[in-house]
Write a structure and sequence with these properties.
The chain is of the alpha+beta class. The protein contains seven helices and nine strands; from the N terminus they run αβαββααββααββββα.
Length: about 210
Amino acid sequence: MVFDRRKEIETDIQIKEIEKEMSVSEVMNKTVVTLDINTDIPVIAREMVRYNVGSVIITEKEKAMGIITERDLVRDIVTKDKKPSRVHASKIVSTPLVTVKPTTSVIEASEIMLKSDIKRLPVMENGDIMGIVSNTDILMVTPGLSTILKDLIEMNREPLFATGEGEGPEFNSGVCESCGYYSEDLEMVNGRLLCRDCRDVEEDYYD
């Protein structure tokens, strides 16, 4: 118990230090692609490839109003066997746009991602998009933070394998082993517990 308490205190200190010293402006990707809401999917996909980004900001009347990610393309176009040229951004864009300020701490940004169940946060200042910070950006900023988040994931995963007498393990809710987010809808796919979105991507990959 003494060891656990000591580890808990050390973790709290690490989080406070990171929260105090590091903002999203220090880790965000400054390459931001913006496209109009009437843009069709092939153009969106080409721009993602051209600029090597995983998402594009969608605008309406030159104001940022939503976001489209690679996963949106797979989930809403590929898995549903839709013809990309017949689908516009307006049909799959995720709105409203959840944003943070450049001065927002990485800890606060990660909390917003968890609460909103998103992996990317546009960084805005005075109505302008300054960059995008992803969960991967935050995980990579420091080994200390990566360890903290890994411990939290493992801590949430443990109850998944707790079983009662005469009962088999139930994998209904917990942390997805692909995206790392909590889900109420986990299923075992190829030896891993995956949420619905990650199962869609996995099944499309093996098709």
